[in-house]
Each structure stands twice: as C-alpha cells, then as structure tokens.
Backbone:
C-alpha cells in the first residue's frame, strides 16, 4: 500500500465517520473531502469541479424541476383521487397508497412523492382509526423501493450509470433497472402492505381530528384571571395532569429559569414552557385559564401598542388643526405606523376597521412538517419575522429525539419538526410552499389546474420516452423538458432554481471526483482484493452478496447517493479481480443504496415521517430488517438471472 492509497483511505474513512456523525450537512462533508483530495495532491486543482458537469448530476437537478411541475399543477392529487379507494379496510387502503407512492417515485423525486401523499396518509389513518405511523412507514418504504425501478427514480441509479459509462461502456438505459428493481419493489411492497404494517409500533390510536405526533413544546402565559396564579409548579402539573403535561421551564421578567423548583409559585405574567400531547394541549390550557403566548401579544406589548396608538392619534389631531388640507394623508400615515407596531406585537392585530370577531373567523390552526430540504433549517421564527412578514403565529413545536428550553421563537428548526401554526389559511399555505413544509391537515386550498396537470404529465412522459428510446441523452432530454415547462409555466421561471435540492447536487458533484481518485490510485482494487480473498475467497456469488449487504448497511447511515459513489469503484474493482461482468455488481450497488430501512437518517423520507409518525430511532428496524432480508433473498437470484456473471 503506497502513500496515495493510505491518504485516500484516510480521507474516505474520515468522510464516512462525519456522515455517520451527522454533525454537519452531507454537502459540507463532501466538499471537505473534495478539498482534502486537492490539497494532498491526489486530484489536480483544474479537475476538482468536473463532477458538477457530470451528466448524472445535471440529470438529477432537471428531474427535480420536472417533479415540481407535477406538484404545482395538481397532477398527483388527481391521480390519488382516482387510484385510492375511499371505502376499504386498512390493508387494501395501505396497499393502494403505497403502490401509488412507488409508482410516482419511479419518475419523480422520492421526497416529493412522499410529501404529496403524506396528507392523504394522515387522513387515511384517521378514517381507519389506526396510528398514523402504520400508514406512513409503509408509504415511506414504498417510495424508496419505487425509486430503484428506473434510471431517474433515485440519484443513486444515475450515479451507478455514470460509473459504468466512465469505464468504457455506455450508461444504463432508462428501464435497465426495471427487471430487478421492479421485482424487488413488488415483493417488498406486497410484504409491507399485507403483513409488515402490523409490525410498525402504534404509539397511539388515531382518533377524530388528530394523530399521535409526539409531544409539542409550547409557551403559555399566566393571565390575570388564570387559576394558575399563585399555584406552585407542582400544583400546576398536577392540575394539568402530570402524565400528559410537564413544565419544562419558567420565564419571568424576561429571565428564563430551566428546571425550576417545583415549589416556586407562579405569578400573573409568567410564561410556562410546557410539553404536552397535541390532543391534550387545548384541554390543559383551558383547565387553568392559560393563554398560548405566541397566539396573542404580551401584556407589555399590548400596553406599548396602545400607548403608541394614542400618541399617534394626538399627533394626527394636532396636524389636522394646523393644516386641514393634509389631514387625510397624515392620518393614513399614522394608521400605517400604528398597524406596523401592532403587527409586531401580535399577528392577529388588524387595522381598526376590522373587528376581532371577523379576524378570528379567518384564523385556522394547522400542523406543518419541516422537510429535510426546507429553507427553515437552522433558522427560527424570530429570524424569519414569522409574525410581521407572514402574519402567522408559531404556537408549538413537536420534536423527536430531544427537547429544548429555549424560547419558542428562538428555537432553530430541524428536519422532521412538527409546527403548530395559527393564521389565515392562505398565509399558512403560502408559507409552507415557500419554505419547504408539508401541511398535515386537509388541503382544501390546493386547487388543481386540469390543463396544467395534463401539460406537466405530458412533458414528463415525453422526456422519459425520448431518453428511454435513446433519441437523446437523458440529461439533454430532461433539459428540453424543463425548458418547455418554463415556457408553458407548469414550472414558473422563478421557481426553477428553488425546485433543485442544491445540497444533493453539491454532494454528488463533490463526491464523484473523490470516487474517481479511489480508482486512479488503485485503492478500489485494493479493497476489492481484500474482500475477495479474505471474505468471498474468490467466489463471485459470495462477492456479489457481500457487495449488496455492505451497500445496504452503508445506506442506513449515509446518503444513498454518497453510498453509491463510494461503493461503485469497489464493485467495479471486485468484478475486475474476478474477471466477470461489472453489471451485476453495479446493479447490486443500485439496489443496496436504495434500501435504507433500518434508521431514520439513511433516507430523507424516513426522516420526514419521524415526527408525524411519533417514531423513535429504534422503531425502523422492526419493519426494516425483514424488508432488508427479503430484498437480499429476491435481488440476488434476479441479479444472476438478468445480469449473468
């Protein structure tokens, strides 16, 4: 082993450790790995960014834009209304929903397919009176399985095709993945929908209008007429129901007290940081007369707003007396200033001519799930000016895997968070679309455009057909589709760049050169030689199983595209050492990198259902492990039959 091989192994292992750790985003880690290769002399500086021009990277970005067209036009909503049964038992309903998700993810982004169907899944769980997780996990697994059936179904398939092309062969065609991928997907979905969904932990039975989304953390103010005034915190918990509600902290005079003494007595104006289940939150607040802090202005804010308003009125009156001809203009300016101040104090505050009753009639409560690629990640309600810019109140946050005692408005959002929002339906819908969130309530405001839906479907189908028939390279065919989408406005020009998942693009563009360094330095061949002689002992079938299993395990901890980029050189090196075709080994990488079923971090879809399903980290293996075993048992014979050694 020479110094170059040792260096790239150290870089690769460090990269994988950072991926597993999850402290930094995948694109940051990939960029650091690329930079390390350049600084150590393993990769010429002029070749550092050639990965960004790789056809696989370009195709991924273009497919994401076309997927946006399907979402915008309501094409998928219309499809679900046709395909999903309204009068059926849980097994048939879950089977229809999961199969629909798998079919969609074969031709559009997996996360997009899941995001579109999540509200349908929640409603289905409510209708069937089952825990939402029993519907959401099969749906997530189905969309992951569906992605492995076509070239564009998942970025990892495009990466695999790119590596085949870079090794002196043509890339895989659109449906080369279908014989193996479709067989695995059908068997996997059949198991998940007929048997597997019963293995999913049901934290709580869904009922009526809610679901088990985990505990929300919210802020409640002790009002003047509150029964909690003068009670100790222990008495407050007992009155609220200690099993359902917990006091995490107390804020008094802008000073936060974490883990407050249970014997501390509350006062009017205190803010209690509470943890409660969504369905018990309203009951708990009304029982003691507590008010959600973010739903209305604080006492001090209201007083300041009223004082400012009176001052502005006096100024207006004075100006009227001095100059009558400009009175209306000055009054308008004053009213604007007053309204601006009041809006900062409370998102519910409207101009004086609107009565409170009229305003409240327009407000709704809606739960939103934060997508893994949301622009909210790392930001907070205060930073994005949620009240003043969007007219929305953040009432509570539900987060799995940890809790925070920070002020609600100062908590940084994370992927999978559930946000309880209050505001006008239009404002919440616009906010969710702009920032990458999924509304978990019925989407009454989602109006499909039949003409645009047909256009978006035709553009996607035409692009797939042109690429499948080989008339144009996939990247060119989808680029033409994107251009047509912009012209007919199924994807407005202003949304094109927002539709691209840029962290994934950076991840792919950075890791492709790193993977090529593994091959150019002989490191991939060295690893392949070790696997062959120490584990497989020269048996091609054993080596194929080993490549599949290792790839599956890595995909549970790493991004699937990163897993494919790391494993493809090893698969090619293994095939070369054995003197057999590389195709079955590359297909094994394609299948394995799409099988992230054991953890919530291996695939974005698993992360997305973490909060709405009320899941814990260890819940995924209960269904994921049987699915993994089933995939191995089905995939290996199919690989050997369709892609002979």
Residues:
């Amino acid at each position: 082993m020479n110094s170059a091989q040792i260096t790239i192994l150290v870089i690769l292992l460090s990269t994988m450790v950072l991926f597993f750790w999850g402290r930094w985003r995948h694109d940051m880690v990939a960029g650091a790995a690329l930079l390390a290769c350049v600084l150590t002399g393993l990769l010429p500086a002029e070749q550092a960014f050639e990965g960004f021009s790789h056809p696989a990277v370009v195709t991924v970005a273009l497919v994401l834009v076309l997927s946006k067209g399907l979402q915008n036009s309501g094409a998928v909503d219309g499809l679900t209304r046709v395909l999903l049964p309204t009068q059926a038992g849980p097994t048939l309903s879950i089977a229809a929903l999961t199969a629909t998700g798998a079919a969609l993810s074969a031709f559009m982004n997996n996360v997009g397919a899941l995001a579109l169907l999540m509200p349908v899944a929640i409603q289905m769980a409510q209708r069937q009176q089952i825990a939402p997780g029993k519907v959401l996990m099969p749906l997530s697994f189905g969309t992951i399985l569906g992605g492995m059936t076509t070239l564009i179904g998942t970025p990892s398939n495009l990466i695999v095709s790119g590596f085949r092309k870079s090794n002196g062969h043509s890339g895989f065609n659109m449906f080369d993945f279908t014989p193996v991928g479709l067989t695995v997907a059908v068997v996997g979905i059949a198991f998940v929908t007929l048997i597997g969904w019963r293995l999913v932990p049901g934290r709580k039975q869904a009922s009526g209008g809610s679901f088990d989304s985990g505990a929300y953390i919210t802020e409640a103010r002790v009002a003047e007429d509150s029964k909690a005034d003068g009670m100790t915190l222990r008495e407050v918990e007992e009155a609220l129901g200690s099993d359902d509600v917990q006091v995490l902290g107390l804020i008094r005079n802008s000073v936060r007290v974490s883990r407050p003494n249970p014997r501390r007595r509350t006062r009017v104006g205190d803010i209690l940081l509470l943890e409660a289940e969504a369905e018990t939150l309203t009951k708990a607040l009304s029982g003691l007369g507590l008010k959600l802090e973010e739903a209305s202005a604080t006492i001090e804010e209201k007083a300041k707003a009223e004082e400012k308003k009176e001052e502005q009125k006096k100024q207006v009156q004075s100006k009227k007396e001095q100059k009558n001809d400009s009175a209306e203009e000055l009054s308008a300016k004053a009213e604007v200033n007053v309204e601006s101040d009041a809006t900062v104090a409370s998102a519910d505050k409207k101009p004086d001519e609107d009565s409170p009753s009229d305003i409240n009639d327009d407000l709704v409560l809606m739960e939103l799930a934060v997508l893994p690629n949301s622009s909210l990640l790392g930001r907070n309600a205060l930073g994005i000016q949620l009240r003043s810019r969007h007219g929305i109140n953040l009432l509570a946050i539900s987060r799995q895997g940890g809790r925070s005692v920070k002020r609600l408005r100062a908590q940084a959002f994370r992927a999978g968070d559930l946000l309880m929002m209050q505001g006008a339906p239009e404002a919440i819908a616009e906010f969710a679309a702009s920032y990458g969130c999924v509304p978990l309530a019925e989407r009454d405001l989602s109006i499909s455009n039949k003409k645009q839906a047909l256009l978006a479907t035709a553009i996607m189908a035409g692009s797939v057909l042109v690429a499948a028939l080989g008339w144009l390279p996939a990247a060119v065919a989808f680029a033409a589709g994107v251009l047509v989408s912009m012209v007919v406005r199924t994807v407005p020009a202003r949304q094109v760049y927002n539709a691209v998942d840029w962290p994934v693009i950076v991840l792919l563009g950075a890791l492709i050169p790193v993977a090529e360094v593994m091959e150019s330095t002989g490191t991939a061949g060295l690893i392949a030689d070790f696997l062959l002689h120490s584990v497989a002992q020269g048996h091609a079938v054993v080596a194929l199983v080993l490549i599949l299993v290792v790839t599956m395990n890595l995909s549970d901890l790493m991004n699937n595209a990163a897993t494919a980029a790391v494993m493809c050189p090893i698969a090619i090196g293994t095939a070369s050492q054995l003197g057999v075709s590389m195709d079955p080994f590359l297909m094994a990488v394609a299948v394995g990198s799409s099988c992230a079923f054991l953890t919530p971090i291996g695939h974005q879809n698993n992360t997305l259902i973490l909060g709405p399903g009320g899941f814990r980290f260890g819940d995924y293996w209960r269904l994921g492990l049987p699915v993994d075993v089933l995939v191995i048992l089905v995939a290996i014979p199919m690989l050997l039959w369709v892609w002979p050694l």
